[in-house]
Amino acid sequence: AQTVTQSQPEMSVQEAETVTLSCTYDTSESDYYLFWYKQPPSRQMILVIRQEAYKQQNATENRFSVNFQKAAKSFSLKISDSQLGDAAMYFCAYRDAELIFGKGTKLSVKP
Amino acid sequence: SAVISQKPSRDICQRGTSLTIQCQVDSQVTMMFWYRQQPGQSLTLIATANQGSEATYESGFVIDKFPISRPNLTFSTLTVSNMSPEDSSIYLCSVTGTGPYEQYFGPGTRLTVT
């Protein structure tokens, strides 16, 4: 069965600095999708970024980018120029037949 | 992305009662999902609801406890029946998006059972 592991329960970053959140997954599939979701205290799950496994190029969305290492089954999220509004829970997710979430990383942003 | 609303946004209920949560989407969608997020935890899929067919439940969730309706392509309800304090969670509705394999989520319903 597919699993998603986020090894950092909590992370902290200074405002305007860069932070990287880690995610690894386990699958025997070759074609799948990976996602990062953000859940602020309002609890709304917001799709941050998506990566197709067949694409070698790392996805980028403004200040958010990923480092996708397919062979290593690693999918980290880099947040550049961190802002106070980035403070939230971040969930890594793998999709094959269904969406499978990691346990999340709580990101704090210090002013 | 689809705009999803849920009602109620939160509720406090007594043990043994039932609560029905509504999910409304601003566009027609084929697949709708219901998730549970227990305090401080990740999301767990309860069931998948397709219009015109019975919902498909994940292991550990049963229809008698979590009956689901899907009367049309924009609406679904989840009922949490015979509630106990262990049912205190956030319940989220989700739909597939126009992009491949994307899913979008409603704002969630925070349920507290006393």
Structure description:
The complex is a heterodimer of chains A (111) and B (114). In chain A, strands 2, 5, 6, 10, 11 and 12 form a 6-stranded mixed beta sheet that branches. Chain A has a 4-stranded antiparallel beta sheet with strand order 3-9-8-7, with no helix packed on it. Chain A has a two-stranded antiparallel ribbon with strand order 1-4. Chain A is 0% helix and 53% strand. Chain A is globular and about 40 Å long. With 111 residues, chain A is mostly beta strands. By secondary structure, chain B is mainly β. Chain B contains no helices and 11 strands. In chain B, strand 4 (31-37) and strand 5 (43-50) form a beta hairpin. The model of chain B has no long low-confidence stretch (mean pLDDT 92). The interface between A and B is medium-sized, with 19 and 22 residues.
Task: Explain the layout of strands and helices.
The complex is a heterodimer of chains A (111) and B (114).
Chain A lengths: L2 E3 L4 E5 L4 E3 L2 E3 L6 E7 L6 E7 L7 E2 L2 E6 L4 E6 L8 E8 L3 E3 L3 E6 L1
Parallel strand pairs in A: 2-12
Antiparallel strand pairs in A: 1-4, 3-9, 5-6, 5-10, 7-8, 8-9, 10-11, 10-12
Chain B lengths: L3 E4 L2 E4 L5 E7 L5 E7 L5 E8 L5 E2 L10 E5 L2 E6 L8 E8 L6 E3 L3 E5 L1
Parallel strand pairs in B: 2-11
Antiparallel strand pairs in B: 1-3, 3-8, 4-5, 4-9, 5-6, 7-8, 9-10, 9-11
